[in-house]
């Protein structure tokens, strides 16, 4: 039986019947059934706020102060930047919310089967970069906090000189 499209009452699209047997089918990339797509407006808003309220955003406001902006302007610029970035993010995520398909399946329409792999890898590289930035900022924040709570932490009385990494470090 071939797959057919069913539109639910809330506007979500779902495939009914069997998915065609294809080398492109993978259960990890299969569409999420409409009954399991239960996020509402609050869930999406909470997710987006969680993505925007991160240490790099706070650092961006601080950079505005370094360049001579007053605090209100710095915060406004960060909020404006997040609002501008939200538009393409919403356009990208709308397909997943409506049809239940993940990003690699969505980009097959634009880049083809093999190009979708390239797009997914590039997206992963960007994610690794952001993970590195946020990890470094979070680690530095912890370092400063521990240094405030324990003043001897920043300048320990005993230096550990015997710990050396093997290899060309």
Q: Can you describe what's shown?
A:
The chain is mainly alpha-helical and about 170 residues long. The protein has a domain at about 110-150. It is about 60% helix and about 5% strand. It has five helices and two strands. The chain has helices at about 40-50, 55-65, 70-100, 105, 110-150, and strands at about 5, 15. A two-stranded antiparallel sheet has the order 1-2. α2 runs antiparallel to α3. The N and C termini lie far apart (about 60 Å).
Key terms:
169 residues, mainly alpha, two-stranded antiparallel sheet, 5 helices, 2 strands, elongated
Taken in chain order, the helices and strands follow as EEHHHHH
State the helicity in percent bands: 55-70%
Flag low-confidence runs. Answer: none
Number of DSSP-assigned strands: 2
Mean pLDDT: 81
Please write out the topology.
Blueprint (H helix, E strand, L loop, with lengths): L3 E4 L5 E4 L24 H12 L2 H12 L4 H29 L3 H4 L1 H42 L20
Helix pairs in contact: 2-3
What's this, in brief?
This protein has 169 residues and is mainly alpha-helical. It has helices at residues 41-52, 55-66, 71-99, 103-106, 108-149; strands at 4-7, 13-16.
